[in-house]
Model the fold of this input.
Amino acid sequence: MAAIVSEDAVAQPSGDEREVGSGGPSRHPAPLPFFLLVFLLSFPIWLISGLAGRPAFNTVGVICPLLAALILTGQGGVPGVERGSLRKAFLRRAVDHQRIRPRIWYVPILLLMPTVMVLSFLTMRAMGTEVPLPRVTVWMTVALFLASLFAAAGEELGWMGCAFHPMEERWGALKAGLALGVTWAVWHYVPYLEADRSLEWIAWQTLFMVATRVLIVWVFVHTGRSVFGAILFHAVSNVCVYLFPEFGSSYDPMIAGVITAMIAAGVVMRWKPDRR
Done:
């Protein structure tokens, strides 16, 4: 799928979107302060969740990357542009669907992660693992998707809308995607530990998340750098995990991680992301 459209054919942003989404270093906060702020904002949530014994409270943390990005947006100044205007333009990136050209890119955005889960299901069945058949209703799927869309927007406006660009400028798309994927996974470690996940489970989930981030980056750079595309991919991924096959009851990060990593490796070999 990497050959669907060349990077030269990617639509270029204009106006306010260029100020926030594709400008120079002064328009994008440095990644290290952004990451530190994300973890700092997340710490009180992790602490309250741990003390209260309610791991589900950690879901509030999805807004931390967005909050960090909003705090840092405009730091250093952009000549002739007010910080408030920058923040409004930044938030509009959440609905920048017009950047996705050609529309065929909705195919991997919407179907790649469901394919991963179907392959995971079939693999587990072939290995003799007892996996119940999915029991999914339309209303359940819609409700999960809407919740996941909100959560993914809170994350991807930060990860892809803010942190990725300066990392890509310095290291190229692939290395930036891998580094961002590792950071993204580590950010989840405290909630996973509070949810009593084993270290082995977390290790395999790290593989799954890093590979997923590489795929999100691949989609992002080939869809006019659409944050909306990244949000949609992330949301679909969350829904797939939650519905596998009954609210994630049989989800195995080892199987899903290996399959996702193999797909990501295949994409990278064809995509050549660091080619200039």
